[in-house]
Specification:
Distance between the termini: 44 Å
Number of helices: 7
Largest sheet: 7 strands, parallel
Mean pLDDT: 94
Radius of gyration: 17 Å
Low-confidence stretches: none
Strand content: 5-15%
Strand order of the largest sheet: 3-2-1-4-5-6-7
Shape: globular
Helix content: 40-55%
Oligomer: single chain
């Protein structure tokens, strides 16, 4: 029987690449995305057409679902959809995230701060809390998985991005705590922390710093180039595989050496 995953933030970037990677590894996937903008986020989010494009690449192996990760009801619907449509749920991957609130902390509005924290942190919580009962019920031998996408910002500080940096630190702490809660049930929970990855979010970060384009972030990564979404997705898919059965509570850096340097 094929394994089943939910991926949030699935319409583009790392989320879409993760859907591709999991399907290539034999998964069926419920691909979830909000597919509409958030007023406090200063760039366009994915569209329904983006999500449709991800689904179209994979036929019956992927089901698209429009939903907001901040909504407990939407995440519960995602779990119910996976179990009803594909017959179960083995893995959840929290890829949904936004960057906003650029500038010194004391100049950031509450609305902008809340937008960053609600998507990145509350959204991760909502997905996990909706999925946990099903993953636990699968039993220890099922090797169920939780993976959340944090950031190199989750272990460093970024200039003029205190809201984002602190939110990604929180994602790491959240998942490590969950890993301890779920260890006795055989559910592994880990974090992947990308560096500067070629996504719409990175373009928005370039705007925060007044850079001409995202390529100017290359200088911060010792490997001398931007990371591609499929490279992050490959690590996520590996964490979801039997090869990673002994790994839980880990933070796997896919950052081209950014946090080492």
């Amino acid at each position: 029987m094929r394994r089943v995953a939910i991926v949030t933030g699935a319409a583009r970037g790392i989320g879409a690449a993760t859907v591709d990677a999991l399907v290539n590894d034999g998964y069926c996937v419920v691909a979830v995305d909000r597919c509409r903008d958030i007023a406090e986020v200063p760039y366009a989010l994915a569209t329904p057409a983006d999500l449709d494009g991800v689904v179209a690449r994979h036929g019956d192996s992927v089901l698209g679902l429009v939903g907001d990760v901040r909504s407990a009801a939407d995440m519960q619907l995602a779990v119910e959809t996976a179990t009803r449509h594909f017959g179960g749920l083995d893995t959840v991957v929290a890829c949904a995230g936004v960057v906003a609130a650029g500038g010194p902390l004391w100049e950031i509005t509450d609305a902008a701060w809340d937008a960053v924290w609600s998507v990145n942190v509350l959204g991760t919580r909502r997905l996990i809390e909706a999925a946990a009962p099903t993953l636990i019920a699968n039993g220890r031998e099922s090797q169920s998985r939780i993976v959340a996408v944090a950031s190199a910002a989750g272990s460093t500080g970024l200039y003029h991005l205190a809201a984002y940096s602190s939110a990604k630190h929180a994602v790491l702490g959240l998942v490590r705590g969950v890993a301890m809660d779920l260890a006795e049930h055989g559910v592994n929970a880990n974090v992947v922390s990308p560096g500067s990855t070629r996504t719409a979010m990175l373009k928005a970060s370039a705007d925060v710093y007044g850079l001409a384009n995202e390529e100017e972030f290359v200088s911060s990564q010792p490997i001398g180039r931007l990371i591609e979404p499929h490279e992050v997705a490959a690590t996520i898919a590996w964490l979801c595989s039997p090869a990673a059965s002994a790994i839980t509570g880990a933070d796997i850096a896919v950052d081209g050496g950014m946090t080492v340097s």
